[in-house]
Write a structure and sequence with these properties.
The chain is an alpha/beta fold and about 260 residues long. It has one domain: Aldolase class I (TIM Barrel, Alpha-Beta Barrel). The protein contains 11 helices and 12 strands. The protein has an 8-stranded parallel barrel, surrounded by 8 helices. A hairpin with a 2-residue loop joins β2 and β3. α1 runs parallel beside α3. The N terminus is likely disordered.
């Protein structure tokens, strides 16, 4: 299963080609109250602020070579509406990097709001669990401009900024949406997120095998060795990794990370 075989049909808004037979690195920007933050295992009470401007952080990532940037509206994810979208749109308009956004996307208007402003990929999370009929309709309409974000706690999907854990298994949801046409999944193991303890590589690979689609891993990256290990699973369908706290805590630089996945 070569990742590129699933990535040939890409959003026309892409500024730089994703499908170059390379593993993709996504530096992460989580936004809350207009700041760049990280939460420990998704706990809003365990927040660390890493910057006063999400746009400035995105510009720093872009200037240091990032071709994709992963942005999450944490306020939006919890409140069910767009809150920090201004930073996302500014990044998409002003930077030479592709932006993917998740959090607070509940309606078609939300999707169009972002796509019309040049965002390369919109992530459907909670709404895919709560209203799968709507999510599948959007997939039919917008295709690979959308991804399904699956955040799992003990294998079960968590929603609303991880505040609520459902009774639905992430792998079952993934299979259902793969059949509905999803080409890209973003999988986060909440237990590893922000812990710098290593990603749940087994769960990521299992999801890729079960769906036959592209999976971007998120959560737990602690060092360059984690990037290398995930990159070796590219033929299994693991096509990229989202990195947050390891960059902010200077476990390695973005340049080192990009060099690792591009080598």
């Amino acid at each position: 299963m070569l990742a590129c075989s699933y990535s040939q049909t890409l959003p026309t808004s892409l500024k730089k080609e994703e499908c170059n037979l390379s593993f993709q690195l996504y530096p992460a920007i989580d936004m809350r109250n207009g700041k760049c933050v990280r939460l420990l295992q998704g706990d809003y009470a365990k927040e660390t602020i890493y910057g006063d401007s999400p746009f400035d952080m995105a510009m720093q990532f872009a200037n240091n070579g990032a071709t994709w940037i992963h942005m999450v509206d944490l306020d939006g994810a919890r409140d069910g509406k767009r809150v920090n979208d201004g930073f996302v749109i500014q990044a998409a308009n002003d930077l030479q990097a592709n932006i993917q956004i998740g959090g607070g996307i509940r309606t078609e208007q939300d999707i169009v709001h972002y796509l019309d402003q040049g965002i390369a990929r919109v992530i459907l999370g909670s709404v895919a669990i709560e209203n799968p009929v709507f999510a599948k309709e959007m997939l039919r309409k917008y295709g690979n401009q959308l991804a399904i974000g699956l955040d799992a706690k003990d294998g079960f999907v968590a929603t609303h900024g991880w505040v609520t854990t459902s009774s639905v298994k992430a792998i079952d949801v993934a299979k259902e949406f793969a059949e509905a046409g999803t080409e890209t999944f973003i999988f986060t193991d909440i237990a590893t997120d922000g812990m710098l303890s290593g990603p749940n590589e087994q769960a990521v690979v299992e999801l890729a095998h079960a769906t036959g689609k592209n999976v971007i891993a998120s959560g737990g990256v602690s060092g360059l060795h984690d990037l290398h290990s995930l990159q070796k699973r590219q033929e299994d369908g693991v096509v990229g990794v989202i990195v947050g706290k390891a960059l902010y805590e200077e476990k390695f630089t973005l340049a080192q990370a990009l060099s690792e996945v591009q080598s």
